[in-house]
Records
---
Amino acid sequence: MQIILSILMFIIGIAIMTISFKAKKESVYYLTLSIGVAIFFAAIFVIFPK
């Protein structure tokens, strides 16, 4: 279950990052990119807890 959730978070993070490249406004671009990166690293943290 945890692995499925983390893979889903990876996909969502990458999807948000790809959406950010299509954004016209610079503020929207940085906002979506930072959210995508945050979800991506959250997925890594879920897979490898300290």
---
Amino acid sequence: MFLKPQHKIIIALLTSSIQAQTTQICDSTSNATTNSGRYTFFPDVVATDDSGYQCTDFTLADDTTTNTTLFTTTFSWSGTDANTSTPHSFPSLTLNLPSILPIPISNISLLPLTNNWALYPGNPLSTISSTSASSLQNVSVIAACYLTLYLDLTPETSQNASLAATKIIIWQASYGGLLPLGYTSTSTSISRPSINLAGITYTLYTSQSSPSTQTQTTWGTRAPAVPQTVYSWYPDSNTSSLTAMDVSPLLNYLWREVYVDSGTYVGYVEWGLDARHATGNVTWSVYEVGMNVKRGTPVKAVGGGAGRDREVGRGEMVGLVVCLVGAVVLFG
């Protein structure tokens, strides 16, 4: 059984000293990096309503052969208001590849994602290996799992989640009706692009997020400090198991179709769970997770539904302005 937050910090210190291969993080500000240095775990607890807690057992001894690690997070955000507009926590894993990142988006040839996890009510149980949507409904879970990439035309800025001008979110699973920004657009003139990867159809939604009025202490390190364009690829079905699935075609589509400039840098990559509400303890057991970025010639994505009336992204608007200015210079 998990103890109250004030007791968990003491346990975290004891766990680290007794068993150096794992560590327990139950506060909002600590983080932990795997022995190889490849991954850093952030609890990113942003709740301010004292409606619950979060505690994670993180494995420091990552597998350097498969480039994977594992962790287990238990949380409970049981306030009377489900408050789906903002996350309560975002337990996540950040990819540390200084030899590759930052990298121009058009130079990414592969971005394989591997993970095997289960989200279920209660405390950690090794016997549970899959997610039951109905069991999550019983405790009113509102959560989503996704991969996030931060981009900017400046390499250094692309590595700062708060200052990066662009964010790409590749959704993997969603529970409790959680949807991406831009999903509720009712414009009938928009033909949304879609791409099929490994039998899953991803649809593109575009939105703008404003700088947060909250402090970094409240919102964690990912609160946007500048206007941010958000591109969300949303799947037609949930999946909790991926084996080296290459998601780079979703990135390639964005620069080939000039949603983002081909020279835009990808500098920050993270994968995690957007946890917003649960009336009791819920555990996210990540039995395996791994990410990678490969430099090289990208594969062209085969997509559909991108018409002349599609949504205009920030990169496309910049390109249009440049073309117009060029026309004035040439013909003026």
---
Amino acid sequence: MKALIKLNLSVNQFSGDIPGTIWALQDLQELSLEHNNLQGLIPDSIKTMLALQHLDLSFNSLAGMIPNSLEVLLDLQYLNVSYNKLQGPIPQGGPFKNFTILSFLANEALCGAPWFQPCQTFHHRSKKKILLLVLLPIGSSFLALAISLLLMKRFTRKKTTTLAHDLFPETAHQRVSYHELQRITNGFSESNLLGSGTFGSVYKGVSANGIIWAIKVFDMQLDGTSKTFDLECEVFRRLRHRNLIKVISACSNPDFKALVLEFMPNGSLEKWLHLGHHVLSIIQRLDIMIDVARGLEYLHYGYSFPIIHCDLKPSNILLDEDMVGHLSDFGITKLLGDGESRVQTKTLATIGYIAPEHGLEGLVSTRCDVYSFGITMIEAFTGKRPKDEMFKEEISIRHWIQELLPGSVDQVIDVKLLHPEDEQVAKNIACVSSILQLALSCTLDVPENRINIKDALTTLEKIKTQFFQRN
């Protein structure tokens, strides 16, 4: 038992103090105790677990202070103590230099870090008061000099802190305030607006060191906004993948919440498919679909439990400077617990992309994402939206494709992909036919009959290989 490396006891009904026997597991690298009802203090003995890399104590009722002894856990890469009743100063040394507000959410009595209220400093104030009383008899000139020195010391200390924040590595989460976000977006002006969605608006801003950010500002007038913000923070805190949008930082106040995200200069897939004079080649569209499939594969299989995006569509697929696809907008994402294959929800996704069982029964599973992925593939290669006027209640975009495949692919393929002078037209049609056949496998009415995203990704990669072999 002492050789145990990973221990996951999350999402249970455990209560009381954290058992002391856990801290005897000296080789433990990952400890997950989130979503229980644990109480008491975070024990100081945790400092003996020097191999620990991942510690999640969130969504419990732990109280007291975060032990400074945690600073000795130099291998600790992930910490989450959000949604507890912790208080006092947040440690600043060791691995805490790399943790952000996302590790400490909803602990209102915490203090000291840039994102929380300043800690009380009665001890320092008393010392300054004594110093003034000692200096007073010496004369007003010496007193003025002493006060000046104190002010200079305080100013220097503040300036140093600011510089330390500016030097925070770009690869790590940065610390930003509301006032900084307001400044770099010109007061959240319309000229900086990139777009609006269900839960808020996204603005463009340029940081002090010239890096462009996308600032997602949540609409605090909507019911459930705080829950949506917390959920996105939870998802972003857990996940790291090339095909998922990257979070830079977060800003959370009672009346303002925002995420600072990596800026995607080429906008959304929806823009490239439907707006302006953008034209994506077959291989570009195929590569983007492969990117999306890889992101979904990571969500469904790459973590300790499945994560369901729940709202996959072209507007939530963002493209970087190299046209690599990134999944974004995790506002209604669902996290499945151990042993769960589906979960009930009252939140509906976008009409046209939503799986039948999600829309009718409120049941979501990884196969719901596969359904949305299939509809998105159809849209990417036909240029038709699932809610276009040609699709009435009696005929959906899927039924339209099913009726015309495999013999009439030329009637459904996006006309931008058909060029009479292109010698590869027949091969292009064959490629799109294979992709649309896969899309039909993704969008079957019965969830259990749909292909899973792993197999869908493998099929897309084979289609790409065959495309280059033909050409």
